[in-house]
Design brief:
With about 160 residues, the chain is mainly alpha-helical. Helix content is about 50%, strand content about 10%. It has a domain at about 5-115: 5'-nuclease (Rossmann fold, 3-Layer(aba) Sandwich), CATH 3.40.50.1010.
């Protein structure tokens, strides 16, 4: 399965100590050069930067279709734009992407999209995560990931944890 990731799933899973779920679930990941550069933005190492640098199962690509990236950047940042372009170039079966506008753009191009919540739910379904609630709490408190109360409780219900 070809899986392409944007920055947010990498940084958020790294921030909560669950980065290795990506390797366990997908085996191999592909990222665009723009995602790598976002991980190094401002001269600092964002969460996930060291994990990506040390991961021989993550391959970084330069985008061929720069015209598409330019069009997408009218509404999206560089990382999201390059992630979508790379997914199309590689004919990816799955794109890991959290931001709403980026998800909508990818879906309009008929790409299958999953965000960090979907990754955690899949990990729970496969027995790699025992309980979701602590991970959701860590996403909000440690990683600064925004989850509305509705989405938080919906994710727990999908994980069969609404009564815990």
């Amino acid at each position: 399965m070809i899986v392409v990731s944007n920055t947010s799933p990498l940084t958020n899973l790294a921030a909560i100590g669950q980065f290795d779920l990506l390797r366990c679930l997908y085996g191999r990941l592909h990222i665009a050069r723009g995602v790598w550069e976002e991980l190094n933005a401002g001269g600092q190492a964002w969460p996930g930067r060291n994990e990506v640098a040390g991961a021989d199962w993550i391959e970084c690509h330069t985008i061929q279709n720069q015209a598409l990236v330019t069009v997408l950047q009218r509404d999206l940042d560089r990382g999201e734009s390059e992630t979508i372009a790379l997914a199309l170039e590689l004919e990816a079966e799955l794109v890991l992407l959290d931001e709403r506008e980026g998800r909508h753009a990818a879906q309009r191009m008929e790409l299958r999209v999953v965000g960090v919540l979907g990754i955690l739910l899949e990990a729970k379904a496969r027995g790699m995560v025992k309980v979701m609630r602590p991970h959701l709490d860590a996403l909000c408190q440690t990683a600064g990931f925004y989850l509305s109360d509705t989405l938080y409780h919906y994710a727990l219900s999908l994980a069969d944890e609404s009564d815990l």
